[in-house]
Amino acid sequence: MNERILEKLTTLAESAKYDVSCASSGTTRKNKPGTVGSAHGWGICHSFTADGRCVSLLKVMLTNHCIYDCAYCINRRSNDIKRAALTPAELVELTIEFYRRNYIEGLFLSSGVINNPDYTMERMVRVIKDLRTVHKFNGYIHMKSIPGASRELVAEAGLYADRMSVNLEIARETNLKLLAPEKDHESVYKPMSFIQQGLLASAEERRTIRHAPRFVPAGQSTQMIVGATNDTDREMLLLSSMLYRVQGMKRVYYSGYIPVNDYDNRLPAVTQAPLVRENRLYQSDWLMRFYGFRAEEIVDDGSPNLDLEVDPKLGWALRHPECFPVDINKADYSTILRVPGIGVKSAKLIVASRRHGRLSSYGLKKIGVVMKKAQYFITCNELPGQTINELKPENVRRILTSKKPTRKEMARNQLVFLFPD
């Protein structure tokens, strides 16, 4: 690898770091004789980037030149930044050499749009096709699909990539038009639909032909920016719910807005990314995917934004005291899952354990229930304590959000002596 290529890599890796939708492998493709690499298992080796993100892939752009002028993007056309572009052959060489040195386990490939979407997409497809067919690379590949790319190129990319994604970026189209005038939601939904159709066709084909090639075996994902516009949490979660339900999305990622272009008056004046809000959205997303909550339950018309002080499950419970207390020894699995402080694993253990006897608070602690939260929403083998209905939701909230003094503060208070005047 010569210094010129490594200098390009430094520039393009820096330009790619703001895309958070780089998941590790969800495929089960093992190493085979004559191939290079493996994408076996639900997680692969991890490293840490300069900005603290945990990644396992060579995360790079083919080029950071772009014909679009999206206000929120560091690579926008009007930005005066260092530009670079790798040829498909250079990127293939980088990937193989980095893998042989055990630096990476796979590739996350994105790109700015040059000339037009199909021209850019064709060059990206050439990279992953050469890796698979010429170099027999068997590691994990995540490729960004370019909005507006043709069905044929998306279909070809899906034969070589483990996961594909198209970033939606902004939940409401009017806001997307404001910040990215050259883009619209239709150009994003089309390749999403192409990927979904390919997944369905592949699944149908594999029912009759066992060894038929798999199309995007790790599914597709997307990303939304949090805090760049006035989109509410309700709008984002309703959109995510639709993407999971209709497009068969594997993951929706939420990226707190980072002010990389603070000179643009279309963007909010913030000093740091809204990380707490980003975290609450991920928690809400988890509730929709694994806990049986609907988006309309987590955020309703009366509270369109998530409460940043409490997690979304606790927020729902405080708004619906009529659903509690839950009898741990009688309630079904789906009801137990809605109790704050009880996770999926704990709920399964509760259902399994009570076959052998009634559960007490001690047994719940051993299972892993966070009793600090759960005690106000359940009854178990002992006499019931004060639940949310006796204490009232506002008092439970105050108890759970009150901060305990630190050890230093407690030690300082112990040294204060009060003398009479």
Explain how this protein is built:
This protein has 17 helices and 12 strands. The strands form 4 sheets. The chain has a 6-stranded parallel beta sheet. Strands 1-2 form a two-stranded antiparallel sheet. It has a two-stranded antiparallel sheet with strand order 3-4. Helix 4 packs across helix 6 and helix 7 runs parallel beside helix 8. It is globular. About 1% of the residues have low confidence.
Task: Based on the model shown, name its key terms.
globular, two-stranded antiparallel ribbon, 421 residues, alpha/beta, 17 helices, six-stranded parallel beta sheet
In N-to-C order, the SSE pattern is HEEEEEHEHEHEHHEHEHHHEHHHHEHHH
Q: How are the strands of the biggest sheet laid out side by side?
A: 5-6-7-8-9-10
Separation, N- and C-terminal Cα atoms: 79 Å
Query: Main beta sheet: strand number and arrangement?
Result: 6 strands, parallel
Large-scale geometry: globular
Strand composition percent? 5-15%
Number of strands: 12
Estimated helix fraction = 40-55%
Radius of gyration of CA atoms, rounded to a whole number: 25 Å
Enumerate the spans where pLDDT stays under 50 for 5 or more consecutive residues: 40-45
Question: How many DSSP helices?
Answer: 17
Mean pLDDT: 87
Q: Which structural category do the helix and sheet elements fall into? A: alpha/beta
